[in-house]
Design brief:
Length: about 140
């Protein structure tokens, strides 16, 4: 390989690397939409716990989540450490969501302070994961 060919190959590699790192930032959008959707779901089913409301809110949430999963699967690049990052975010969210639901229905039915604060706390793990994904893609670009 000649010097010019090597320089061209390095330039192409830098271009591809920069493009890939930038494309890995999609996870922040996913995290924000997931957090907003589950925040709305938690508040809605906590403050208006009728069968119709729970069914409707959960159905809307499932449609949004299917859209988010489809969006995620169509991305050509994943953030660095995506498996662990997403797994930790979903574990954190699921734990907060479960505690909020079980304790809320048992001890704080229709208490706005409980449900809004629980929903806000549940939004933290995916938002932190999204922030870490963006931060990681900036550090490696």
């Amino acid at each position: 390989m000649h010097r010019d060919e090597a320089l061209d190959a390095l330039e192409r590699a830098d271009t591809v690397g920069a493009r890939a790192h930038g494309r890995g930032r999609w996870y922040m959008l996913f995290a924000v939409l997931f957090a907003a959707t589950t925040f709305a779901l938690t508040v809605t089913i906590g403050l208006f716990p009728s069968t119709v409301t729970i069914f409707t809110a959960t159905s809307v949430c499932l449609v949004v989540l299917v859209g988010l999963v489809t969006f995620a699967l169509r991305q050509p690049v994943q953030p660095r450490g995506y498996g662990w990052l997403h797994g930790a975010a979903m574990l954190g969210w699921g734990t907060v969501y479960g505690v909020t639901l079980f304790a809320g229905y048992a001890f704080f039915p229709e208490d706005p302070v409980w449900w809004v604060s629980g929903a806000a706390l549940g939004a933290v793990p995916p938002l932190v994961a999204g922030w870490l994904a963006v931060r990681g893609s900036r550090n490696t670009a």
